[in-house]
């Protein structure tokens, strides 16, 4: 088994297509397929903030659900969009408003289809993926070793939001502990969620959210090769969105 784990897309559809091309995928029946049979895995946060969330949902749904040529784990933005589609009261902010705007611009038939596609994708997703063939665990915001195998509320919060303390920074960001510093496991933990300028390796963890939607890059981590591949973002660069390290 060979996998390409793709970081947070956030509606940056053009960059996703560029990344697939750089990784050597070729289009076949409307989806990118690798000639060596590599499996793309999306690490969550497909939508929000970027320009093409609807197109991104379409492609990922086709790859994961219809053609079964990719896999996906949900992120916190996926969770929020799912709750929006359920009809729950969620605040249209922190990027959700861009996806909702795109969604509302569709005709009724397309809205119904996209809503169904995304909800199906989300409902069929595992909270995190354990891939013994490449000695890796893929979780949106990471996972502690002692949580692997569990899916209770505490683990779900960690996987979607990181190791949050309950406090917030002055700018509203949640205070998060740098759990990767304490990871002692033998398996790779591949995650995204927190934008970094370069893929960040600590112990046997790697953060591959290189902040494409904030103008940096879209990255993939390839296993078993243990290499990263990135393409530059087409979005404007927002330097304050990048933090050199998590708070301890």
List keywords for this structure.
248 residues; 5-stranded mixed β-sheet; globular; nickel; hydrolase; GTP-binding; nucleotide-binding
How would you sum up this structure, described in words?
- The chain has 248 residues and is α/β, with parallel strands linked by helices.
- The protein contains six helices and 14 strands.
- The strands form four sheets. It has a five-stranded mixed β-sheet with strand order 5-4-1-13-14.
- It is globular, with a radius of gyration of 17 Å.
- The relative contact order is 0.18.
- The model has no long low-confidence stretch (mean pLDDT 96).
- Belongs to the PrpE family.
Morphology: globular
> What fraction of residues sit in β-strands?
15-25%
Number of strands: 14
The chain-level structural class is alpha/beta
Strand arrangement, largest sheet? 5-4-1-13-14
Strand and helix order: EHEEEHEHHHEEHEEEEEEE
Q: Give unreliable regions as ranges.
A: none
In round numbers, the mean pLDDT is 96
Bin the helical content.
25-40%
Q: Could you tell me the radius of gyration in angstroms? A: 17 Å
Instruction: Describe the largest sheet.
Output: 5 strands, mixed
Distance between the termini: 35 Å
Number of helices: 6
């Amino acid at each position: 088994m060979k996998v390409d784990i793709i970081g947070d897309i956030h509606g940056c559809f053009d960059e996703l297509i560029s990344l697939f091309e750089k990784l050597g995928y070729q289009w076949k029946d409307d989806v990118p397929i690798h000639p060596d049979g590599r499996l793309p895995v999306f690490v969550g946060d497909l939508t929000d903030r970027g320009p093409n969330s609807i197109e991104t949902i379409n492609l990922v749904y086709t790859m994961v659900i219809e053609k079964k040529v990719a896999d996906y784990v949900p992120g916190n933005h996926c969770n929020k969009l799912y709750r929006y589609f359920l009809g729950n009261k969620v605040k249209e902010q922190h990027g959700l408003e861009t996806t909702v705007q795109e969604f509302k611009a569709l005709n009724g038939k397309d809205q119904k289809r996209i809503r169904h596609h995304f909800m199906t994708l989300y409902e069929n997703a595992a909270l995190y993926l354990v891939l013994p063939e490449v000695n890796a665990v893929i979780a949106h915001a990471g996972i502690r070793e002692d949580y692997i195998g569990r899916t209770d509320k505490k683990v779900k919060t960690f996987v979607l939001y990181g190791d949050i303390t309950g406090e917030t920074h002055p700018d509203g960001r949640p205070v998060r502990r740098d759990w990767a510093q304490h990871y002692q496991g033998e398996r790779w933990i591949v995650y995204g969620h927190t934008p970094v300028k370069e893929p960040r390796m600590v112990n046997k963890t790697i953060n591959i959210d290189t902040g494409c939607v904030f103008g940096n890059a879209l990255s993939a981590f390839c296993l078993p090769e243990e290499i990263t591949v990135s393409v530059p973002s087409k979005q404007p660069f927002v330097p304050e969105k990048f933090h050199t390290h998590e708070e301890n």
